[in-house]
Design goal:
Length: 275
């Protein structure tokens, strides 16, 4: 919910109204038109849903737009790593990843909405709440964007936003170098720009462009789409490294748990089913 208050200049201006024939001027100053922010507050699910029809199976999401154009040697290293991951997945022994280890997704992975997102609009801030791992991302308004060297590295970086008509433009800096999107390497110079807007009353898109002068040969762009589902109630999702379905093996691969696993390995975790 958003609130509007009378601007301070309007109140101060009343004291300066001219007096004519002993009576205060009663004609109010012309009303100023204040643009209303688009309402993106609500619960959003990724659309189209990449998990549709899947039930307790391993799903490796495709890298958006086939991945970035990296400089060498980063391009060859990343392709080799992705090839190994694909081979392990086909063999039924997928490699461990940050989410398996209960690490926050960070930016821009959080916007991939593996589980639904909730967006809150409050004065001076847009907050993104991800059900997956109970993550919180803050987008600040009326704030200068600090130089990269002055931003303390974090999972989600430092995000500053502004409205340009119907589009929320967000710039993010300071994402930790060990927080990688589909294992894509990046330097501390990486910057992420988003253009978030409603494409229909219940449809939202986030156009993302990543730049990194040290590792990317050119900007990397892709778009996430979302469908509103305000009937869905976001619940707490705490990851304690013990998953009721999956286990991490000694060789770093992941497999489904079976009835023969020790009871302590199947300790329940608070992990609701998707949707």
């Amino acid at each position: 919910m958003k609130f509007a208050s009378a601007p301070a200049w309007a109140l101060i201006g009343l004291a300066a109204l001219p007096i004519a024939a002993g009576h205060a001027q009663t004609t109010p100053p012309a009303a100023q038109t204040i643009a209303k922010e688009p309402d993106i507050m609500g619960t959003w699910e990724i659309y189209p849903d990449p998990f549709a029809g899947e039930n307790n199976t391993f799903v490796e999401l495709p890298v958006p737009n086939g991945g970035p154009k990296l400089k060498e040697p980063y391009a060859s290293q990343w392709k080799a790593k992705r090839a190994e991951r694909d081979a392990k997945l086909k063999a039924g022994t997928p490699l461990v990843d940050p989410s398996t280890q209960c690490a926050p997704e960070g930016m821009p992975m959080i916007m991939g909405a593996i589980f639904p997102l909730q967006i809150l609009q409050t004065p001076g801030q847009v907050t993104v709440l991800a059900e997956f791992l109970t993550q919180t991302r803050r987008i600040l308004f009326n704030k200068p964007l600090p130089p990269i060297d002055e931003v303390s590295p974090s999972y989600y970086g430092y995000s500053v936003g502004k409205w340009e008509g119907d589009t929320l433009v967000v710039t993010t800096r300071g994402v930790r170098e060990d927080t990688q999107f589909f294992e894509i390497p990046h330097s501390k110079q990486m910057e992420i720009q988003e253009r978030i807007r409603l494409t229909a009353p219940d449809m939202l898109e986030d156009r993302i462009t990543i730049t990194d002068p040290l590792m990317l040969a050119e900007p990397y762009s892709f778009t996430y789409g979302y469908k509103r589902n305000d009937g869905y109630e976001i619940v707490e999702y705490i990851c304690d490294r013990v998953d009721p379905l999956f286990k991490v093996n000694a060789d770093g691969t992941v497999s489904m748990k079976t009835e023969g696993d020790p009871p302590e390995a199947a300790k329940p975790a608070t992990q609701p089913g998707k949707k």
